[in-house]
Amino acid sequence: MTHRTASCDCGQLSITVEGEPRGVGVCHCLSCQRRTGSIFATLAGFRGAWSMSGRATEYVRTGDQGAKFRFRFCPVCGSNVFHTEEGFEDRSVSISVGSFADPTFPPPSDSVYDSRRHPWVGLPETVQVWDKDPD
């Protein structure tokens, strides 16, 4: 089985997952823009077990539909590496695609909160676009 490891910029915090991502998407919500310091977040979701190495600082945010998301970032370099949804930590994890530092990583298939996408950002025609979060 394929193992993938993502890490922060300084290498202190890392996460390892097995298998291929269940999905890759971009999120244009204002919270992700602030959280990443970019104009969108690019995330890969994985099912099943994951293991973390190093120390993480955590921040919990409540989403639009009431779910609580626990974001983990490096207390040394500040990189935002991954997050889980409370109640689903053992079944699913979402990892910042940039943390894999792999230009061959699969491209996104979905774009959520597209209503907040900066107008000069283009997406591949194959990406399914959602005005808000479809969940």
UniProtKB/TrEMBL annotation:
Origin: domain of life? Bacteria
Domain CENP-V/GFA spans what residues?
4-114
Q: Which UniProt keywords apply?
A: Lyase, Metal-binding, Zinc
GO MF term set: carbon-sulfur lyase activity; metal ion binding
Show the Pfam families listed in the entry.
GFA
Keyword match Lyase: yes
Give the protein family: Belongs to the Gfa family.
- Which PANTHER family does this one have? CENP-V_GFA DOMAIN-CONTAINING PROTEIN-RELATED (PTHR33337:SF40), GFA DOMAIN-CONTAINING PROTEIN (PTHR33337)
In Swiss-Prot or TrEMBL terms, this protein is called: GFA family protein
